[in-house]
Amino acid sequence: MQFLKSLYIHHTFFSYIAILAASFILSYWIPLLYPITWLLTLLLLGLFLFDIYLLYGNNKGITAKRKLPQKLSNSDFNPISLSFQSFYPFKVSLLIIDELPIQFQKRDFEYQYSLTKGEQQQFEYTVRPVERGEYVFGNINMYASSPLKIIKRRFVFQKDQMVPVYPSIIQMQKYDFLAISNKITQVGLKKIRRIGNTQEFEQIKEYVAGDDFRTINWKATAKSNQLMVNQYQDEKSQPIYSIIDTGRVMKMPFNNLKLLDYAINATLAFSNVALKRGDKTGMVTFSKNIETHVGALQKITHLNTILEKLYAINTAFTDSDFGMLYAHLKRKVNHRSLLLLYTNFEHISAMRRQLPYLLAIAKKHVLVVIFFENTELEELIATDAEDLQSIYHKTIAEKFALEKRLMQKELQQYGIQTILTKPEHLTINTINKYLEIKARGLL
What's the rounded mean pLDDT across residues 43-72? Predict the structure, then answer.
């Protein structure tokens, strides 16, 4: 049975059969073709048996192996490599079909290769997951055929390999590397000069325009006969929390990725940057109830805790309770902190319903409300209206876009920091706002 399951007919064999069938039909008018066609039929049968011997005479035949990373990065292109080797004494043609996880919904994933005797090959392809969770790769199916191209032998390797898809580790590493190399402006991040705000002394330097005159060191000024000022170190180890709304408003997808996953990826990248800059980072997720609370700590190993919590976040189609969030923060977050709240408001009335809770939170903490532009509406606004229905649609889209900007203005009037961003620019804009707040000493 195993032999029959691995035996497949090559498509060229059916071409041979079609030629023989046509020859038998023609032999009705050309009798000389009849015996010749029978000889060709016997020859094809002999070649069929000989091809079976060629492909099944070597037990090892083909070997193959798939190399997967320990974790896949959500929303990024992750490399997957396949290596394979031929042990046949002749050149073989390979059709490779790798069974991708069901989440990709791809059924036509195949490659073709040719291998000479003992040759080893490797190729790499990429996959882009858009959901977190466990992804199971199935069989590596290799269909080998000899130069006769009459049959194919199927080889099966590495059944059911599971790999988890975590929040965007690649994105986190990207911003980490750029920050270390001082090239953050290449990806749109602002390079902001940060001036210390605490009383921890760092050095005495010459006065330049813009320095705080209250920091003038009069003794050093008298000795050097020019104005000298004290410079203080920037305050570090400040608590910073990323608060993620996991309610129904965050289920909206853009570029196949939910707003929730954009927020999760941004939280991971931002937490890494904040830890590297000496601040404490924590995390809270909420919807109808408080689902996750990770206290703010200043340990680089703390990033693994945040990563595991982000991986396990699930959502439900429920309305989020901002009153519950306020009560939780009042009880659990006792020190003045920077709170980055990832949520979304589609209507100004929805924002005003939550405004009392946002104001209450902002009295004690530095609150940054982060919500999203609807990029599909922006595309609709940019198109030309060609009929009355298009004019209606465009007018409504402009109204919704205007409401987003009005929400941002209203929150700012109440002293609440805001970020209105496109989903794909979320991480960059979040880190920019963090650098701005630190530079201005608002925390």
Answer: 93
